[in-house]
C-alpha cells in the first residue's frame, strides 16, 4: 500500500487534504506531530521514506523540502507556487490538455495549480488552443475568493479579533501592483503571449470563488458568437467528471461564490449577449477543493494509479 506523507499537514491546505484522505483504505497517510513538524531532520526522514509526498508549505519551505529528498523513487505533489512553471515539473491539471493526465501519471514532480489559475486557465486554454482567442489578445480577469485562500494568516486576519491585523472588511481588492503570484502560470499554461490584467478580490466568507474573463466578441477574429465559445468549452471538457460546463441556455440572475464549497468540482459558464457582442466567461469553484486540496488528491490518485475520483466528486 502506498505511503503518503503530508508535509505542512497542520496548515489550511494540509488539513483539507488530510480530511479528504481520512477515510481512505487504499493508502497510508503519514504526518509529523506538533513537536516534529518543523524539524528538518524529522521531515527529511519522512520525505525520503514515503512513496509520495504532498507539500502544503510556503514556497521557500516547499523548495527546501524538495532539496531534502534524496530517494529517487519518491514522488511529489507540490501545492505551493514554487514549481508551477519550473522545468522538470508537470502542471497538475489533468483536464487541461489532451495527454496531460498521462504526463501526471508518469511524472515524479507534479505542481498543483493555484486556485485563481485553475479558474483562469480552464476558461482560456481551450479557446486559445482552438484558435478562437488569438495568443496575443489582451485578456483580463477578475474575481472574488473566500479568505481561506490566503492561508492561516489571512484566516486569522478575518476571524481572530485579537490578531494584530484583524479586519472587519467585507470585501476588498488586492494585487494592486499587478504582480499577483499566479500570473506566471496563468500566462504559461494558457499559451497567451501577454500577461493578463488580473483584478482579484477577497471577501468575508471562508471558502469558494468566482472568476470572470470578460471578452468583447466583436474584437475576436471572425466575430464568434457566445454559442461558439460555449461549444469549444463544452467539447474540451465533455468527458471530465470534475469539470462541468453549464448549458448555453442557462437563465440565472446571478451566481453564488460559495455554491460549490466542499466539492472538488469546477463549473464553467458562458453568459453572452450577441447583440452587444460581449461575453462573460465565469468559473465557479471551491478554492480549497478543485483550487487546492481536491486537485492535490486527484493528482495523487492519478500518480499512484488509483481511480482518479476516489474521495472526490
Ligand atoms: N489556501 C489556499 O486556498 C491555497 C493554498 N495553496 C498553497 O499551499 C501552500 C500552503 O498554503 P496554506 O495551507 O494556505 O498555508 P498555511 O499558512 O495555512 O499552512 C502552511 C503550513 O506550513 C507550515 N510550515 C511553514 N514553514 C514550514 C517549514 N519550514 N517546515 C514545515 N512546516 C512549515 C506552517 O506552520 P505554521 O503555521 O506553524 O508556520 C503551516 O502549518 C502554500 O504554498 C499556498 O500557496 C495552494 C492553493 C490554494
Ligand atoms: C484570497 C487569497 O489571498 N488567495 C491567494 C491565492 C490562493 C492560492 O491559490 O494560492 P497558492 O498560490 O498559494 O496556491 C492569493 O491571491 O494570493
UniProtKB/TrEMBL annotation:
Pathway, per UniProt? Amino-acid biosynthesis; L-arginine biosynthesis; N(2)-acetyl-L-ornithine from L-glutamate: step 3/4
Query: Which Enzyme Commission number(s) are on file for it?
Result: 1.2.1.38
Catalytic EC class: oxidoreductase
Entry's Pfam families? Semialdhyde_dh, Semialdhyde_dhC_1
Give the superkingdom in one word: Bacteria
Q: Which residues form a coiled coil?
A: none
Please give the catalytic activity noted in the UniProt record.
Answer: N-acetyl-L-glutamate 5-semialdehyde + phosphate + NADP(+) = N-acetyl-L-glutamyl 5-phosphate + NADPH + H(+)
Catalytic residues (positions): 115
Q: Which segments constitute the Semialdehyde dehydrogenase NAD-binding domain?
A: 3-104
Q: Which family does the entry's similarity section mention? A: Belongs to the NAGSA dehydrogenase family. Type 2 subfamily.
Recorded hits in NCBIfam families, A to Z, give: argC_other
The record's annotation in HAMAP family points to: ArgC_type2
What protein name applies here?
N-acetyl-gamma-glutamyl-phosphate reductase
The gene that this protein is the product of is: argC
Amino acid at each position: 500500500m502506498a505511503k503518503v506523507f503530508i508535509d505542512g499537514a497542520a496548515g489550511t491546505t494540509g488539513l483539507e487534504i488530510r480530511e479528504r484522505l481520512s477515510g481512505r483504505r487504499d493508502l497510508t497517510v503519514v504526518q509529523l506531530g506538533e513537536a516534529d513538524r518543523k524539524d528538518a531532520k524529522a521531515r527529511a526522514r519522512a520525505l525520503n521514506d514515503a512513496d509520495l509526498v504532498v507539500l502544503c508549505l510556503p514556497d521557500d519551505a516547499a523548495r527546501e523540502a524538495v532539496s531534502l529528498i534524496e530517494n529517487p523513487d519518491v514522488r511529489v505533489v507540490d501545492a505551493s507556487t514554487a514549481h508551477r512553471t519550473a522545468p522538470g515539473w508537470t502542471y497538475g491539471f489533468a483536464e487541461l490538455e489532451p495527454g496531460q493526465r498521462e504526463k501526471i501519471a508518469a511524472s515524479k514532480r507534479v505542481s498543483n495549480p493555484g486556485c485563481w489559475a485553475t479558474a483562469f486557465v480552464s476558461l482560456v486554454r481551450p479557446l486559445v488552443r482552438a484558435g478562437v482567442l488569438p495568443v496575443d489578445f489582451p485578456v483580463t480577469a477578475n474575481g472574488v475568493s473566500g479568505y481561506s485562500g490566503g492561508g492561516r494568516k489571512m484566516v486569522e486576519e478575518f476571524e481572530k479579533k485579537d490578531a494584530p491585523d484583524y479586519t472587519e472588511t467585507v470585501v476588498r481588492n488586492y494585487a494592486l501592483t499587478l504582480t499577483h503570484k499566479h500570473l506566471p502560470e496563468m500566462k504559461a499554461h494558457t499559451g497567451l503571449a501577454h500577461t493578463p490584467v488580473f483584478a482579484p478580490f477577497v471577501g468575508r466568507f471562508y471558502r469558494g470563488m468566482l472568476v470572470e474573463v470578460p471578452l468583447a466578441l466583436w474584437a475576436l477574429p471572425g466575430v464568434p458568437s457566445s454559442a461558439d465559445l460555449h461549444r469549444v468549452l463544452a467539447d474540451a471538457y465533455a468527458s471530465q467528471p470534475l469539470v462541468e460546463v453549464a448549458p448555453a441556455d442557462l437563465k440565472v440572475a446571478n451566481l453564488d461564490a460559495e455554491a460549490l464549497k466542499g466539492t472538488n468540482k469546477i463549473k464553467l459558464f458562458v453568459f453572452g449577449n450577441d447583440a452587444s457582442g460581449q461575453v462573460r466567461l465565469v468559473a465557479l469553484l471551491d478554492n480549497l477543493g478543485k483550487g487546492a486540496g481536491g486537485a492535490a488528491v486527484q493528482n495523487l490518485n492519478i500518480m499512484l494509479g488509483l481511480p482518479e475520483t476516489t474521495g472526490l466528486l
